[in-house]
Each structure stands twice: as C-alpha cells, then as structure tokens.
C-alpha cells in the first residue's frame, strides 16, 4: 500500500520489489490511495486505486469497505505500507482480517506534527514489524517513538545493476571536470537545493568552465532560477525539469551532490555511486552509511555552501582521485546495494513474519 506510484525514490524501489518477487513463492498485489501515472498501468498484477481523499471526508467508510473486500477476495496475508496514510489505513483493517502488517520507514519523519505523531503511535501495536531503509532511520524511530529494536529490520535500498551497461570513461570524455549535478525533489525545502546554487556560484569564480545541472522539478524551481540570476550563474546551470530516468543525466556528472538537511537513505547517492561518480553530500541521516570520507566522496555540514564548494573544487582538480573513488563506488553498489540483495532480504523478512503466525 502506497499513496501513489510516481517517479520518487520510494516508488521506484517498490516497483523493483514488485517486479522481481519470485512469482512461484509470492503473489504481489498493489493498493494506491490516489491516481497514479503510467507506471501503475504497466504493472500486471491485481491492483486497487482507492481515490482516497482524507480521513475526515464522508467517502472514507466506502473506501475502507472497498479495501476490505480487496483484502478478502485476494486472500492477502501480508500488507506492507509506505508513507503515513497507508500506514493508518492498514491499521484500521487489522481487526477485521488475519493479516500481518509491515510498516516501512523511509525517512527521519521531517513531515510529522504532534497530531501525526499521536496517530502513528496509536497504529504501531497493530503492526507485526517494520522495515527501515538505513540504520539511521531505525535509530530515529527507536529514540523518537520508543519502538523495540527487535521489531525493526534494516533493509537497504537496491540498485538494478543491469542499468550499468555503458562505458563511464567514454560518457564523460570531453566533459571530465566540467559537469557537477544534483538530483532532487524541488517541492521540498528540506532538500536545500539553494545551497547547491550558492556553491555553484562559488565554484564558478574559481573554475568558470564548469557547468551545473539540477535534475528534478517542483514548485521551488522558479525561486531557484531567480537565485541563480541574482548570483550571476543562471547561464551555467541547467534545470532539466521532471525526467523519467534521471540516470540519463547522472551518468555524465563528474561530481554528484546532495544538500538535504534530512535523509533516510538517499537513492540519488546510490545512483551517483553506481555510475562511478564521487559524491559530496550533507552529513545527515543515512548518508554516512554510504559515504566514507575520502573513499566514496565527502561529507559536509548542512547549510554550508562554502564547505560544499570547497569539496567540489577539490574533486574537480584531481581526475585520478575521481576515477579511484568512482571505482570504489561502483564496487560498493554492486557488492552491497544491488537489487537482488534487497529483494532477498525482503523475502526473508516476509517468510519470518509468516512463520510466526
């Protein structure tokens, strides 16, 4: 169960999970609360779109009945939820169905208010277990909500290594040392993409041949474009807008950047590393679990574009270092964060839940 199927990192991870589950062992089904894009239609599995509006809307009872029928008719045994509203809806279903509930924690709860905290804590007792996508996320929910460590399993996000079908050196030939990029949702202030723009202005003063790319879209885009104009760097920053496959841009970066003030486990960093790119990212959440200083890239404080620019410049000046870090990053993703590892870890957890029935 998820809000909708779109182009976000969590949604892409769920799509990979659905597509790669062994059909001889599992029959996946999907429930979305809201209308989705074409990715929803492409999934050849039983699906239900609730057109859910809110818990206060008069149609909620009807939606709950539809969901209940879907669970019963398809003999659902395990419900895994992503995001808050699916989490709460699943908890409401638990008293009426013999199902195991698994809640997925994907961030550090930057969206939560005191009211939402209360609702989440009321729902926790209905869940058999939880999956966190990083150790940092697990520790956050243990500390914040008092959940037992034994009830939370860390399963890292996975990357499909079949996408690694190009020659990295050829892709960046002629661009080496020229393209610095970020992949980010431009709807969320917590992504702090303005720090990327400010760092770009600082790097440009020292290396005027550098170009910058912002992959993503959202309501903050116009503010970021205006900031780039004010800093005199609008002509060297490309805004791609929303793209279906960010890797088609990422693979040309020579440095990948993340500026967020909060991260659970950043899919963009995984994709940078899989493309053989050194990373400069903020020292928050699960980022240090991916980045060892000097080995995979560098960590910088939140809200410090000067420190960000310094590390970007350091990497731009040393092509051999970038190549060394790039090799480290590709090897780390293939060995530890490939999609097959993520799938098998989920399957093991499902089996554990079902064995404890």
What is the succession of H and E elements? Answer: HEHEHEHEHEHEHEHEHEHEHEHEHHH
* Strand ordering within the main sheet: 9-8-7-10-11-12
SS element count, helices: 15
Question: Which CATH top level class of the largest domain fits?
Answer: Alpha Beta
Measured distance between first and last alpha carbons: 21 Å
Mean pLDDT score, rounded?
Answer: 92
Give unreliable regions as ranges: 173-177
The largest sheet, given as strand count, sense and whether it forms a barrel, is: 6 strands, parallel
**Fourth CATH level, the homologous superfamily of the largest domain:** Glycogen Phosphorylase B
- Helix percent reads 40-55%
Total strands: the figure is 12
Radius of gyration: 21 Å
What do these coordinates show?
There is one protein chain. The protein is 43% helix and 14% strand. By secondary structure, the protein is α/β, with parallel strands linked by helices. It folds into two domains: 168 residues, 3-Layer(aba) Sandwich (Rossmann fold); 176 residues, Glycogen Phosphorylase B (Rossmann fold, 3-Layer(aba) Sandwich), CATH 3.40.50.2000. The strands form three sheets. It has a six-stranded parallel beta sheet with strand order 9-8-7-10-11-12, sandwiched between helices. Strands 3-4-5-6 form a four-stranded parallel beta sheet, with helices on both faces. It has a two-stranded parallel sheet with strand order 1-2. The longest helix has 18 residues. About 1% of the residues have low confidence.
